[in-house]
Amino acid sequence: MKMHKRLASVAIALAVLVIALGAYTRLTDAGLACPDWPGCYGSLAIPRAEHAELAAQRYPASPLVPHKARSEMVHRYFAGVLGGVIVLLSALGWRTGGRLRHLSLILLVLVAGQAALGMWTVTLALHPLVVTTHLLGGFAILTLLWLYRAELAGFP
Question: How far is the C-alpha of 83 from the C-alpha of 138, rounded, in Å?
Answer without folding.
Answer: 11
